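User: I'm curious whether this sequence folds into something compact or stays loose and floppy. Could you predict its structure so I can see for myself?
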Amino acid sequence: MKILFQHDGILPIKKYGGTERIIFWHIRRLIKLGHKVSLIGSIRSIELEKLGVKLIAKNQKDWRPLIPPDTDIVHLFYTPEFDLDIPYIVTIEGNGHPGEKFKKNTAFISKKHAEIHSGNYFVYNGIDLEDYPHPNFSDKKFYANPSNKNYWNHFSFLAKAKWKVKNVKGAVTATQMAKKHLHIAGGRVFSLSSYTHSYGMVDQNDKIKILRQSSALIFPVRWHEPFGIAIIEAFSQGLPVIGTPYGSLPELINNKTGIICNNIDELIDAVFQPTQAFDPEEIRDYVEEILKHKELSHLVKKDADHFIGTMLDCIKRAVKKGDNVSLIGFGTFTKVRRAARIGMNPSTGKKIRIKAKTVPKFRPGQAFKASV
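Assistant: Here's the prediction. I'll summarize afterward.
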């Protein structure tokens, strides 16, 4: 399929930028699956061209005239001021403003996120595990290994520290009260305490280092977190997450992947002593198997019908234009031309002339044929 994104920010982002990272991972994955991807946005996103992305400079507010005519679907990460003449989907990553209206084809990023905004659909965010290598959990130098002598003495905080709703103050208070070390990535935090370590905005490599020198992530948000990429970043490195009962956190954190704290006293207690020795391998598996292949069991029949209808509409539009549409493992839809020929009327047995025509054709994939 030919898929278009529109985003004004620079891609890929080097340091902070949750939405930008989600878009970049999405684009990279689509290209690996064989789709053609275009982006209307900043010319400074030129690095995307190395991946095979067609970069279209946005030089006007109304970017609709820039849409390539063979585009099958547009994916936006904001609510557009106008409608499009071709299929499009909107993914909302943040919390909306009071009274904000969303399109019917809007997907949110957690169940709670959808409920708050009266939405019908949600799809959890994911991370590209290529950027989060599998640690050697058996290495006793690894701080999330319960056998490490520093286990549960070092914690990390990944978020924009200046956002009060991220509650870096709560994380600092809890670790200082428990006399444990806190490593903050996401802005500078001034503290005279030897237990608080602030690194400012960090890149991917430094973030991985900080996570691997921690036993858990502290994520004490004080708002309904839409998703929280930092949570699954921590999970990818085998770290449990100590969080609060807001937004997506109760959906993502269970008794095997972390601790939910309802107040500052519970947060201090959780930092002081874990409720159990968490298994880092099991936490990594949670990302690889559960979040990566999450079943959309929250969809009711009408929602599923809507998604399927949109997909079929995209397939029909693409095949009509002469494009091949491949669904990996399922099969390929194509358009073929049948020449005029002589046939026979089954009722009379007389020969008849059959006109040339164009018809759709489906070629099943190997995985589909093997399953039947």
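Summary: The CA atoms of residues 256 and 276 lie 9 Å apart. The first helix runs from residue 18 to 32.
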